[in-house]
Amino acid sequence: MDAASPSRPGPVPAVRFENVTKRFGDTVALDEVSVTAHTGEVLVLLGLSGSGKSTLLRHVDGLQMPTSGGVEVLGVDVPAARGGELRALRRRIGFVFQQFHLVGSLTVLENVCTGALGRVRGPRLGLPTYPRAIREEALAQLDRVGLADRAFQRADTLSGGQQQRVAIARAMLQRPEVLLADEPVASLDPESAHQVMELIREVAAEEKLTVLCSLHQVDLALSWGDRIVGLRTGQVVMDSPVTELDRDEAMAIYARVGSADPVTVG
Ligand SMILES: Nc1ncnc2c1ncn2[C@@H]1O[C@H](COP(=O)(O)OP(=O)(O)OP(=O)(O)O)[C@@H](O)[C@H]1O
């Protein structure tokens, strides 16, 4: 670069996969995957069941490690990270699951409080054992997702959509920089799914989160994400901003299973 020209910083990679291969025995779950999510970007992973979406997400917080290739998240070399470094990284990454993973017998508020376990010392058993500041913060997060009035109800008395909103509040209490969502609306009716996806988008924008979200619904992905990465049998067959995709191109991720030709877009 010309020394006299003003330097304009480019987008900062929050998550970077470089030629990642993951094998489970004879199964190649990820095959030379290279994907970058920049800070604040909302990236959707699309692909058939078994195409590698969950495996990719689990590599972001080091729940799984690559057989080969590099994974860098928030500046941390994940495969090289050990013990404390990996735990510190995981505290910066929130996770929302298809099945919510709430403790049904606990109150909604206590479930949200568990999101702070990474930053309060010692085990916690029961709501009063959490510092008051955490309980207040948890209540504020519940308010944010529209469920403050349900704080003292058992979590398993809520609808699926409400439970997922609680799970989002719990993830937010963690104050994450990256949010991973593994088919967050697969168990919800269309209206609840819409509300949950809106909510994720809203909190992501407010907190400038980088989001990686696996979905099966092409239309939802197109209206919701910034970028779509299509996976087929562990390979990236599409990586494109949604603005450069139309529905037929996105549907091709599903329609062309079995074809030897990668779907190339953009
Ligand atoms: N722990 C594991 N042990 C063995 N094989 C695995 C394991 N995890 C994933 N696989 C295999 O890796 C491949 C990719 O699975 P993955 O769960 O990542 O797909 P997916 O796209 O998330 O599917 P779905 O949409 O059904 O959740 C599949 O063939 C799966 O059987």
TrEMBL record:
Q: Matching Gene3D superfamilies, A to Z?
A: P-loop containing nucleotide triphosphate hydrolases
Which UniProt key words apply to this protein? ATP-binding, Cell membrane, Membrane, Nucleotide-binding, Translocase, Transport
Domain of life, source organism: Bacteria
What's the source species for this entry?
A: Nocardiopsis metallicus
NCBIfam families from the entry? ABC_phnC (TIGR02315)
Q: What is this protein called?
A: Phosphonate transport system ATP-binding protein
Q: A GO CC term?
A: membrane
Query: What range(s) does the ABC transporter domain occupy?
Result: 15-258
Q: Which GO terms describe its molecular function?
A: ABC-type phosphonate transporter activity; ATP binding; ATP hydrolysis activity
Identify the Pfam families for this entry. ABC_tran (PF00005)
